[in-house]
Amino acid sequence: MPVTFGAVGDIISVVLLVKNLVATLDEARGSKAEYQAAIHELWLLDRTLLEIELLTREHADGATPELRGLCGTAKRAVARCHDQVTTFLQRIRKYQSTFDYGQNPNALKEIGHAIRWRIGEKEALERFRAELAGTTSSLQMLMVTANTTLLQVNRKEMKHDLDDVMRRSDNATLSHDASLSAIKDGLENANRNIEAGNSILENLSEAIKLGWLRNLGCELIGLMRSAMMVNFATYRAVIQIQNALPSHLDRGLIEEPMILEDPIGRITPVHLQFITSWDAFHSVLETRFQNIPGHSTMKQRSYGLQAGGTGREIELSRPWQHAFLPGQRVEMSFIFDDWSYGDTCPACSAPSEQCFGADRRCPICGISFRRIQEAQDISSPRQLITQQQKIWLASGKSLDGYDMTCFKRVRLVHKPAAIVIVGKNELIRWDKELKKYRLARVK
Questions:
Q1: pLDDT tier at 148, thresholds 50, 70, 90
Q2: Nearest alpha-carbon partner for 323 in 276, 284, 286
Q3: At a CB cut-off of 8 Å and minimum separation 6, what does 327 contact?
Q4: How far is residue 131's CA from residue 84's CA, in Å, rounded to a whole number?
Q5: What is the mean predicted confidence (pLDDT) over 157-162?
Q6: Under 8 Å CB-to-CB from 35, ≥6 apart: which residues?
Q7: Is the pTM of this model over 0.85?
Q8: N-term to C-term CA, the chain
Q9: How many other C-beta atoms lie within 10 A of the C-beta of residue 284?
Q10: Is 115 within 8 Å of 25 (Cβ atoms)?
């Protein structure tokens, strides 16, 4: 059979060959003493090979040069043993039919093989036994040498470890001695410092006199008197401030004012405990807008109120007690009629999208305006376009005569006309009036 050689694989393959040869000799029908002696030698060889295999498995890496040399010698001995066993096994292969039980060979052929075995192979068996004995002895000596080498290696390692431990112990002892010396020096230095401090304290105690102690007591009394005076002054100031503050009953009667931002942008607090009706509120607003643009509009009460932030509309028809809340911020806007058809800013005439019912802020002039659409019925062009409206529209002002740039927040009411059906002559007259109005806007 083909056998590959490696370190451990070589020994295992030889062991298998030995076992195969032992099985073959067990089946032989010759001299039992000769066969048993050969089998005994083979079993010794097998045991020796197994011990070598165990040694090689544990120390194949070659911890020392001696072990590496012994492993090489063992490998060569195993190879030689492999050759011997293989040669002898091939030599007795032709007598297999004679050795096997259960075979029915030719009687003459079997007798011939037996005679040939007795005459020609007996000496070969003796020679094979001698070679096995020599190989086994050499392998056993090799094992003894390897074990001795291992003992020496272990002894050297233990000695090296002991030397290392002793060296570390010596180093630790030296380090501890140095630390103890440093501690001793520190204690001696501390003792010297304590003695020096004691001498200084003795000198100070001799220098201190009873009069200095009396002066120190007087100074402490003065400092305490000054601190008490400061505390009393602070207490009196706190009492005065507390008396000046309103009591908890007075504070409960004071409410936060409503904050009003008028169309010009002025912010005014309105105390709801002082102003208790819409008439009083309108009177205060008329007074604040005297000699200011929007006075006539304020007198006509043409303005709107909305809650700041939420935009909730505050109707002027609501009861005064339910219209505002303490601390609420309210925004006020003037209301004007819109004749620009919702496509420009009322202050700077910048293009603007037509959007009814929502507040818009002009990005150019910053005015905030809202367009509101209301329907009305008219029966003549006089109601649609009056002479006064045409004059104001041609001048670029509001219908009340104010410049829109004076205001910060306005509302524009657009009233599209629902024209009543009239006769032909009336329609012609309306057409002329509308043409005059358009010409006035173009100019």
A1: confident
A2: 276
A3: 256, 257, 258, 259
A4: 8
A5: 88
A6: 25, 26, 28
A7: no
A8: 125
A9: 15
A10: no
Q: What type of residue is 365?
A: C
| H helix or E strand, kind and range, residue 381 | helix 381-384
Short-list 154, 136, 156, CA closest to 58: 154
How much of the chain is in helix, strand and coil states, percent to nearest 5? 65, 10, 25
DSSP line for 231-280: HHHHHHHHHHHHHHS--HHHHHH--PPEEEE-TTS-EEEE-TTT--SHHH
Q: Which pairing describes strands 417-419 and 376-378: parallel, antiparallel, or unpaired?
A: parallel
Nearest-angstrom CA–CA distance, 15 and 20: 9
Q: 177 vs 146, 182, 184, 200, CA distance in Å?
A: 46, 9, 10, 35
pLDDT at 251 over 80: no
Amino acid at 421: I
Residue written as tokens 């700041």?
308
Residue with token string 């009393």:
232
Q: For the segment 315-364, what is each residue's pLDDT rounded down to a tens digit?
A: 988 999 888 888 889 999 988 887 665 577 888 888 877 667 778 888 88
Residue 347's φ and ψ, nearest 5 degrees, are: -100, -50
- For the chain, the maximum distance between any two Cα atoms, rounded to a whole number of angstroms, is 164
Where do you find CATH 3.10.20.90 in the chain?
Answer: 258-442
In contact, 78 and 6? CB cutoff 8 Å: no
pLDDT category at 5 given cuts 50, 70, 90 is very low
Q: Which two tokens stand for residue 273?
A: 């405990």
pLDDT tens for each residue of 358-403: 788 888 888 888 888 776 555 554 454 444 454 444 444 444 556 7
Please give the full DSSP string across 295-333, using - where no structure is assigned.
HHHHHTT-EEEEETTT--EE-TTS-HHHH--TT-EEEEE
**Phi/psi at 274 (5° precision):** -95, -45
* Domain at 258-442: CATH architecture: Roll (3.10)
* CA separation for the pair 232, 226 (Å, rounded): 10
